[in-house]
Design goal:
33% of the residues lie in helices and 27% in strands. The protein is α+β, with helices and mostly antiparallel strands and 260 residues long. Bound molecules: D-MYO-inositol-1-phosphate (IPD) and calcium ion.
Length: 260
């Protein structure tokens, strides 16, 4: 088992990297993004690749013993020990569209449990940070989820309208409640809106461990709850798909809806 980590140095290093990653995101936002399509059909830009390489280079210099799991490039496999989870750009589709809802994400997971997370929005220059048991912050201001119920709140779902129109059953169940429903590209952006108290929840069957590691802690340290779509604890020792993110109050109901 790895030792308990306090993460002050990790947090400082992650924020420095996030600023550099944000500069690359802005550099290519309106430029030739040299977009390609990956084997899973999802797009990747030159900025995704450059940021992932930067993260590996910078982390290997400071923490040579740690593993790095990035969406585009990794130095390690899932498992026990210290692993950095990076999504160089979450919300690449929105990035390509030119809508500013993409985020840089870097989290430290120890023995499958997120310990530190940094998420950076370069368009609003907002830095979200969290350390386990030490709260979560946006630019130094403490974050808190709302205590609204489902009927009084807004729930975010996938931005993939084709999937919704092809009969995503949970979207139909959610539409039968009184909740407002929001959709746009960017899993992390939607989850930060739960941490900020704007949304009461977010259901997403497509997210991966690299998308969720940092924002998971940011939401939970703001008083919210994050699980798998069946209400299961997310285990970052292995890849997974799907999450329910909530303010806590709506969690059980959202898990029920996610499974419908
Ligand atoms: C994806 C986006 C998208 C969500 C997917 C994620 P990526 O991440 O956040 O909005 O619906 O589940 O995988 O591929 O842009 O990093
Ligand atoms: Ca990505």
């Amino acid at each position: 088992m790895s030792e308990v980590v306090y993460c002050d140095q990790e947090l400082a290093v992650a924020q420095e990297i996030a600023h550099k990653a944000g500069a690359i995101m802005l550099q290519y936002f309106d430029d030739d993004q040299q977009t390609e399509v990956k084997n899973d059909g999802s797009p990747v830009t030159i900025a995704d690749k450059k940021i992932n390489s930067l993260v590996i280079k910078e982390l290997v210099d400071v923490f040579p013993a740690d593993g790095i799991i990035g969406e585009e490039e990794s130095t390690a496999e899932y498992g026990d020990g210290r692993k950095w989870f990076c999504d160089p750009i979450d919300g690449t589709i929105g990035y390509i569209w030119g809508t500013p809802t993409s985020m840089f994400s870097l989290g430290l997971v120890v023995d499958g449990v997120p310990q530190m997370g940094v998420v950076y929005d370069p368009y609003l220059n907002r830095m979200y940070t969290a350390k386990k048991d030490a709260g979560s912050y946006c630019d130094g201001k403490k974050l808190s989820v709302s205590n609204l119920s489902l009927e009084d709140g807004t729930v975010a779902i996938t931005g993939d309208v084709r999937r919704i129109s092809q009969g995503l059953s949970y979207a139909k169940t959610l539409a039968e409640t009184d909740a407002h429903i929001a959709t746009f590209s960017g899993a992390i952006y939607k989850a930060t809106l739960v941490a900020r108290g704007k949304f009461v929840g977010y259901i997403e069957h497509g997210v991966n461990a690299h998308d969720m590691a940092a924002v998971h802690l940011i939401v939970e340290e703001a008083g919210g709850k994050v699980t798998g779509v069946s209400g299961n604890t997310l285990d970052y020792k292995q890849p997974f798909k799907g999450a329910v993110v909530s303010n806590g109050v709506t969690h059980e109901e959202l898990v029920r809806i996610a499974q419908s």
